[in-house]
Amino acid sequence: MTLIMGVLNVTPDSFSDGGSWASTDAAIEHALELHEQGADIIDVGGESTRPGATRVSPADEQARVLPVITELARQGIVVSVDTLNSETALAATKAGATIINDVSGGLADPAMASVVAATGLTYIAMHWRGHAHEMDALAVYDDVVAEVRNELAARVDALSAAGISREQLVLDPGLGFAKNAGHNWRVLAHLGAFDELGLPVMVGASRKRFLADVLPVGATLADRDLPTAVVSVLAAQAGAWAVRVHDVAATRTALAVVNEVESARAAESAESAESARMEP
Ligand code: PMM
Whose Cα sits closest to atom 3 in ligand 1? Predict the structure, then answer.
């Protein structure tokens, strides 16, 4: 069954004074709400990676995420840390995170791979071509599906050479990162192509700009939660390991539909196998 990763961005844009007790409390409260709504994993990030975002220092990033991770882990919640920085990743694992989610797949910080190898923890390596300020210019492909798949395969080779085992790896095609709307739809149309790499795949479409293509002009960010839930269904049907979403409740409901249909299908084939067995 496809897991739901709930997004918790502990950034000043989401929580007005990042790092203070007030924002830590607000972040924890929101994470607990996502957990209750059915998130299997809470993805805690302290640096925005959206187009045009500026970098934060590892110290600021850690001040934002570590208190939140510590408390969620204390409550037994599975936490991933969304970071490009190996020091933050290591500190987060010491605070109780058990998954490292790196949107650069180890390209932004040369020390990331060895840190991940040493922890032995699950590592989500996303397809990435460059930082937020340059990624729109890097959205150039002849065949986006083949190129993303080949670039992910190259990351798998490099990460394996650095000592990360295949059992640790999850891949993500990186919707919206160095990809325009047409590229994102094309990747979604061919999610099965990433199975050829033989590793679990996760998909992060939530509230991204390309979803505006299916909404009326002037639609809000929250209006993107419905198309996000539909993408969660498509990802689940393609066998995704997890989807990363802001609106956990909507995706939970959408995935429940997929589960009901799959159960009905499984019951049907069990029935026909049974009646074939009963035939003289
Ligand atoms: N997208 C964002 C941040 N982290 N992690 C993974 N693995 N996959 C993604 O697609 C992804 C991510 C950017 O979205 P946000 O700014 O809404 O959190």
Answer: 49
